[in-house]
Automatic annotation (TrEMBL):
<dbReference type="InterPro" id="IPR045793">
    <property type="entry name" value="PcRGLX/YetA-like"/>
</dbReference>
<feature type="domain" description="PcRGLX/YetA-like N-terminal RIFT barrel">
    <location>
        <begin position="44"/>
        <end position="122"/>
    </location>
</feature>
<feature type="domain" description="PcRGLX/YetA-like central beta-sandwich">
    <location>
        <begin position="132"/>
        <end position="488"/>
    </location>
</feature>
<dbReference type="InterPro" id="IPR048330">
    <property type="entry name" value="PcRGLX/YetA_2nd"/>
</dbReference>
<protein>
    <submittedName>
        <fullName>Tat pathway signal sequence domain protein</fullName>
    </submittedName>
</protein>
<dbReference type="Pfam" id="PF21346">
    <property type="entry name" value="PcRGLX_3rd"/>
</dbReference>
<dbReference type="Pfam" id="PF21345">
    <property type="entry name" value="PcRGLX_2nd"/>
</dbReference>
<dbReference type="InterPro" id="IPR048329">
    <property type="entry name" value="PcRGLX_1st"/>
</dbReference>
<dbReference type="InterPro" id="IPR006311">
    <property type="entry name" value="TAT_signal"/>
</dbReference>
<dbReference type="InterPro" id="IPR048331">
    <property type="entry name" value="PcRGLX/YetA_3rd"/>
</dbReference>
<dbReference type="Pfam" id="PF19501">
    <property type="entry name" value="PcRGLX_1st"/>
</dbReference>
<feature type="domain" description="PcRGLX/YetA-like C-terminal alpha/alpha toroid">
    <location>
        <begin position="494"/>
        <end position="905"/>
    </location>
</feature>
Length: 907
């Protein structure tokens, strides 16, 4: 197959008009490209993941895949409701097939998208009544949605200078706040000092400029005096006709874990207060639909009654009539009613929040309530306008906090704390002192007892990152209770449109390794039941075991301790999973075939976590991830298999999320990391020093990660697409050229040519881990995309012989593969080879290895055993047989086997 025609893409960009300001990652040129004839592929139905539609959210962005050849580059698309009403939509291409046709498109819709179901098809999109527009000057970017206008600075400390509505300033001085503490008091001997840093902008740029969606990116660091640290990247999203905007906020830790303790990390806005104190309203969401509903100067509950209508209006947030019309026993004494200017809701754990208020600094706090899990949403303002604000995953990523300060004065200050200053300072030091593991032999001994691969200096958080999502509304007046509930709901669960599994399946994306859920036979229904059981089990375990917290949320545990009835959270490499054996892929494939919202949200949280926290984004290990462990960054095995783009691709293409796009683009040059760190340094038996022109790189966990980054860059048409395509093709060619292909195990890679040296002698180096970190999925995609028969043959050989008998292996390769594991997980390779070769015997072996080898066999008990005290900390249930390695492999094997050879499953 020919490569993506770059000249065609550039030509499309040249005629893009208003879309010329788009960044490459947003599909330069496609939003305003010339209309093309309708493609053969029919309209696609899209709907909301959850009930409720768009609600109070400003808009939604979603991705749709297309079959090869269905639409030419630059194709425009139209969106309509089920009853034929045209909906404004902005479209850009996020991936092309190698023939240049459209593979994935992204689509943005604004508040006009009020229906439950839509039809997307080739055509001319409707124009929004109120377009979002972007204008720039030397020092600022102004975004106008047609309802609100935001001025975004290109330098200084104020990211958002102002947000106005109908000429009225609703919020000003949007900025970032960091509190640093230089030491920790581990006892009770005194107080540690702390200092404040402010976010300082190093640059801002428009990534997308309308007409339906605008995106502005702001980068910088936190500064105090001469020191700048903790880099941030903030994106602001605006939709045509919306009264709100979304923020995606990322920090990357670049401090010294021994002395740079984060005491607080927040986003702050100022809110002008124009109304009388009794017309100023505070709304803070509690749990569920609960709200604290108050005024800065309350006139309810007083000894004297201003009148029922007055009291009712204040509770509703309506402007009150002139106090001269009230009962004068109240009016003449209003000065003696306290004004409550300060409020704080602190969520210091997943299970409890406290809410308090005070009149002003220098006076005590009064308890205003509390509860379990707060929504993370609030409002401050009055009849003349106000500001709603919310932080997603508020209790899941505790400790979090919402502050309102100075609401009784001329300007209130709102702070959404991503890390609460009332919590213990963020402590990222390693959890033990090394225990004498100073040499490789000692570290191997440690690995043999705790499963932790420790090495001095490697357990560092330097370079890990975390992304948070926030949402803000500029209201013309205090919203009604129902509107506030809708806004809070939008913060908790941003509305997401998606195409149905049937459409996604027929397009052949992601290697065609999944098919819609099918319960048509008892045997298939049983497998589907087991898949459902496993997802429910991990979802329930996340709640039962409280797998929450700022750095932890989104990950799951690796292995269970049946004696303690607890996951091995404190035992070396058995603790946090960090993508070991691809649970990320299991979850995404489970979603792609089912369309289930609960699976999508679970996978979304995992993608946010593993792509940020488990991988390095700065420093010498940038581009590598960390193996599973007690802390996400503690293990000394830093490898491609964790940072791999394989785990990010589904979320990116389904949502067009720019931050995840950044992560994958950053991996294009990660082959350079093999110069810095040898993954096999502790177990090599022969001398080896990394050489730029002869780097030892495995064809399994190493190459699959590199290939995923190169493929993604190539099909996205990124700045390094030509290099990525060349590396992809040259490594595929030189792996295939090895005497034993993939069975050779590894090769010497030349960073300058992008090729593996072809070995002169055949070798057999097969590991049960090699294919289990995305290699199966990458090879299926690449064989479909790139016409290299020798590569296909080499991969099919590996698939055919891994689960073969030792005698068959020896006959083919001169020696057998040795002692192997994970046969159930590898049954999907049997299934792939069976489907490609139309080999019924391989299909039979695929199901035999799936049901009767290792992993969750037919003898597996799918029971739940109830747990309660004192055996367990929290009541719940367990299944002693379940562990995450086997869960991920069972899930992937079940899904792929059903898709590839499901028609040959008996029963």
């Amino acid at each position: 197959m020919s490569p993506i025609p770059r000249r065609s893409l550039l030509k499309a960009a040249a005629v893009a008009g208003a879309a010329a300001q788009f960044s490459w990652a947003l599909g330069r040129g496609d939003a305003e490209a010339a209309p093309r004839a309708a493609a053969a592929d029919g309209p696609v139905s899209v709907g909301w993941l959850e009930k409720g539609g768009l609600g109070a959210a400003p808009g939604s962005t979603f991705g749709v895949p297309w079959p090869k050849g269905a639409h030419p580059a630059g194709q425009r698309f139209a969106l309509a409701t089920a009853d034929g009403k045209d909906i404004p939509v902005q479209t850009w291409t996020t991936a092309h097939w190698p023939d240049g046709s459209v593979k994935w498109t992204a689509h943005a819709v604004g508040p006009a998208a009020g229906a439950e179901k839509f039809t997307l098809k080739a055509g001319t999109p409707a124009a929004p009544d109120k377009k979002v527009s972007v204008t720039e000057t030397r020092r600022a970017i102004t975004v106008d949605t047609g309802v609100i206008k935001a001025v975004i600075a290109k330098d200084g400390e104020r990211l958002v200078e102002s947000v106005t509505r109908d000429g009225t300033k609703i919020a000003t001085d949007g900025r970032l706040v960091l509190l640093r503490q230089g030491d920790l008091d581990d006892g009770d001997h005194g107080n540690a000092k702390w200092e404040r840093f402010d976010g300082e902008i190093s640059g801002a740029k428009t990534e997308q400029g309308g007409p339906v969606r605008a995106v502005v990116r702001i980068d910088g660091k936190h500064r105090k005096g001469s020191r700048s640290w903790l880099p941030f990247s903030v994106r602001l999203y605006f939709y045509a006709g919306a009264d709100s905007f979304r923020m995606v906020h990322t920090i990357t830790y670049d401090g010294d874990a021994e002395k740079d303790f984060i005491r607080g990390l927040g986003v702050r806005f100022s809110v002008p207060m124009r109304d009388a104190a009794y017309d100023r309203h505070i709304r803070i969401a509690g749990e569920g639909k609960g709200f604290l509903t108050e005024a800065v100067k309350g006139i309810t509950g007083l000894r004297r009654d201003p009148g029922a209508a007055i009291r009712t209006a204040q509770v509703k947030g309506e402007k009150l009539p002139d106090p001269a019309t009230w009962d004068q026993r109240v009016t003449t004494r209003l000065q003696y009613v306290p004004t409550w200017g300060d409020y704080t809701l602190a969520q210091l754990s997943a299970d409890g929040f406290t809410l308090r208020k005070r009149t002003k600094p220098g006076h005590t706090w009064i308890t205003a309530g509390g509860g379990g899990r707060a929504t993370g949403f609030g409002y401050v303002g009055g009849a003349g306008g106000g500001f709603s604000f919310g932080l997603r995953d508020f209790w899941e990523k505790h400790p979090a906090q919402l502050d309102i300060r100075g609401a009784a004065g001329d300007t209130a200050e709102v702070t959404l704390w991503l890390w609460s200053p009332e919590a213990q300072p963020m402590d990222l030091r390693t959890y033990h002192d090394g225990m004498g593991q100073d040499t490789f032999p000692e570290q191997i001994e440690g690995l043999n007892i705790t499963y932790e691969d420790y090495e001095p200096g490697f357990g560092t958080p330097y370079g890990i990152a975390r992304t948070s999502e926030l949402m803000f509304w500029a209201n013309a007046a205090t919203p009604s209770a129902s509107v506030l509930v809708d806004q809070a709901t939008a913060v908790r669960t941003p509305p997401q449109l998606a195409a149905a599994p049937e459409h996604v399946t027929k397009t052949g994306v992601f290697g065609g390794l999944f098919s819609p859920v099918d319960r048509s036979t008892p045997a298939k229904a049983t497998i589907e039941d087991h898949l459902d059981f496993l997802f429910a089990y991990y979802k329930d375990q996340a709640e039962q075991r409280r797998w929450y917290g700022f750095w932890d949320y989104g990950d799951i545990m690796h292995t269970y301790d049946e004696d303690r009835h607890q996951w091995r959270y404190d035992v070396g490499g058995y603790a946090w999973d960090n993508s070991e054996l691809s649970p990320d892929l299991w979850l995404w494939y489970a979603y792609l075939r089912s369309g289930r919202a609960d699976i999508f949200r679970f996978a979304e949280a995992m993608t946010r976590h593993t792509g940020e926290v488990d991988s390095y984004h700065l420093g010498k290990w940038a581009g590598l991830g960390t193996r599973h462990g007690v802390q996400h960054f503690a293990d000394s095995a830093k490898q491609q298999r964790i940072s791999t783009a394989v785990y990010r691709r589904p979320y990116y293409f389904l949502t067009a999320d720019e931050r995840v796009g950044d992560l994958m683009h950053a991996l294009v040059d990660s082959d350079e990391t093999f110069l810095v760190l040898d993954p096999l340094r502790k177990i090599r038996t022969e001398p080896y020093e990394p050489d730029r022109n002869a780097l030892s790189i495995g064809f399994g966990t190493d190459w699959s990660g590199l290939a995923a980054a190169w493929l993604t860059e190539w099909e996205r048409g990124g700045p390094k697409a030509a290099k990525a395509e060349a590396r992809l093709r040259s490594t595929m060619e030189t792996i295939a050229a090895q005497p034993n292909g993939f069975v050779q195990g590894s090769g010497l890679y030349d960073l300058d040519t992008g090729k593996f040296a072809v070995a002169t002698e055949p070798a057999v180096n097969v590991s049960h881990l090699s294919a289990m970190f995305g290699l199966v999925e990458m090879c299926a995609e690449l064989i479909d995309l790139v016409d290299q028969p020798k590569f296909k043959s080499a991969w099919l050989d590996y698939c055919r012989y891994f689960n073969a008998t030792k005698a068959e292996q020896k006959e083919r390769y001169g020696k057998d593969f040795g002692s192997l594991l994970l046969f159930q997980g590898h049954s999907r390779q049997d299934a792939y080879a069976a489907a490609q070769l139309k080999d019924g015997k391989l299909a039979t072996r695929a199901w035999q290895k799936f049901h009767d080898s290792d992993g969750y066999t037919k003898a597996m008990s799918w029971a739940k055993t109830d747990l309660e005290g004192p055996a367990a900390l929290e009541p719940g249930y367990e299944n002693l047989r379940i562990n995450t390695n086997e869960t991920a492999l069972f899930g992937l094997a079940a899904i792929q086997n059903l898709a590839l050879v499901g028609d040959q499953l008996s029963g």
